[in-house]
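Propose amino acids for all 377 sites.
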């Protein structure tokens, strides 16, 4: 029986007994910083992706270090869709470069290559596609565009851990992929993130720059030692992952098949229940291959989203908005930056519905029935 007094949260962390035991083991060994657990987690992720992996403190740090590792800096530009979380823009501007906001494709809400090409300049150094809601859009087209203009590609894959594209796992191909392991992502390490690439120079720079630029300090940390005499020849950051975080990540990765199946089954159920409503449009995502981080719908003719969200919350259902466009923000609003027709139109329709591991099928039915009642009232 559905408990109608229970708050159905939009998203939440879900921690198992295995996760707790893993953290307890680190606490008992009393080596909490970066060491053996991080090394093992990186090894497991390398097996998972089939590409070398370096772990860092969060997904934003991964994007920042990836930009820095390919030489993005002051005076450079990086093409990025406006419809993403501000962290993606912040990762670019942290290097001193300028994130150039681009429009999105109407169907997938991922980077529109034609619009990105119109915003290309001699200062453009990279393109950063965002895998919105777990989908990757026309990723082949993005890579063709990048190759045509000699651009590096840094994939913001924070939403797409476990997603497959044309038979290959995201992160297992391409230039550079960055993932997030924060509390509500497809797997979590509490916080955390990683960079995945076959570019050995990017890997080496990331290993050093996550530890304040101290040369080869990663090797020492993995031996439970410190570098007491060292050299630093570029700007580094305190972006390393801790053993506590890695222990959680290892545990969650071990049960990822179960996690992926639950997320996929909930998203498929939403699709089935919502497909016949005239006002609600689901995302064109195939959940046989995509592991969704969130579940987003578009509502046609939505006049007052804030009121709809309030009414749903009054009935104990949390919702969200992914995301406020970044070209609306004071820091990134540039005069003469051009129009964002699709982003501005589609953003007004977006509503994110609850999706997390503690959600039951009965909860999904309640969310859908309540949403439809509110739309039809």
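Proposal:
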């Amino acid at each position: 029986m559905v408990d109608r007094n229970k708050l159905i949260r939009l998203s939440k962390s879900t921690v198992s007994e295995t996760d707790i035991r893993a953290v307890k083991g680190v606490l008992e060994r009393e080596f909490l910083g970066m060491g053996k657990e991080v090394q093992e987690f990186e090894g497991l992720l390398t097996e998972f992706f089939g590409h070398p992996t370096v772990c860092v403190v969060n997904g934003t740090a991964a994007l920042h270090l990836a930009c820095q590792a390919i030489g993005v800096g002051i005076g450079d530009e990086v093409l990025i869709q406006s419809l993403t979380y501000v962290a993606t823009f912040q990762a670019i501007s942290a290097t001193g470069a300028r994130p150039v906001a681009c429009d999105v494709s109407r169907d997938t809400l991922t980077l529109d290559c034609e619009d990105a090409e119109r915003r290309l300049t001699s200062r453009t150094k990279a393109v950063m596609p965002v895998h919105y809601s777990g989908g990757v859009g026309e990723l082949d087209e993005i890579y063709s565009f990048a190759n045509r203009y000699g651009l590096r590609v840094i994939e913001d894959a924070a939403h797409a851990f476990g997603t497959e594209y044309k038979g290959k796992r995201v992160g297992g191909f391409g230039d550079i992929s960055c993932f997030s392991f924060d509390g509500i992502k497809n797997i979590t390490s509490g916080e955390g993130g990683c960079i995945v690439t076959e570019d050995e120079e990017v890997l080496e720079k990331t290993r050093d720059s996550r530890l304040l630029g101290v040369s080869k300090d990663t090797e020492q940390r993995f031996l439970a030692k410190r570098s007491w005499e060292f050299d630093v020849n570029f700007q580094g950051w305190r972006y390393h992952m801790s053993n506590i975080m890695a222990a959680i990540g290892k545990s969650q990765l071990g049960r990822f098949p179960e996690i992926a199946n639950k997320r996929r089954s909930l998203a498929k159920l939403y699709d089935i229940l919502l497909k016949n409503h005239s006002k609600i449009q689901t995302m064109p995502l195939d959940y046989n291959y995509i592991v969704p981080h969130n579940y987003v719908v578009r509502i046609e003719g939505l006049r007052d989203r804030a009121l709809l969200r309030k009414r749903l919350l009054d009935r104990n259902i949390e919702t969200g908005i992914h995301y406020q466009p970044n070209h609306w923000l004071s820091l990134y609003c540039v005069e003469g930056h051009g129009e964002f027709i699709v982003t501005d139109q589609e953003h007004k329709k977006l509503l994110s519905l609850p999706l997390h591991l503690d959600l039951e099928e009965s909860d999904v039915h309640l969310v859908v029935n309540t949403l439809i009642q509110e739309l039809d009232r």
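The domain at 256-376 is CATH 3.90.1150.10 (Aspartate Aminotransferase, domain 1). Residues 256-274 form the longest helix (19 residues).
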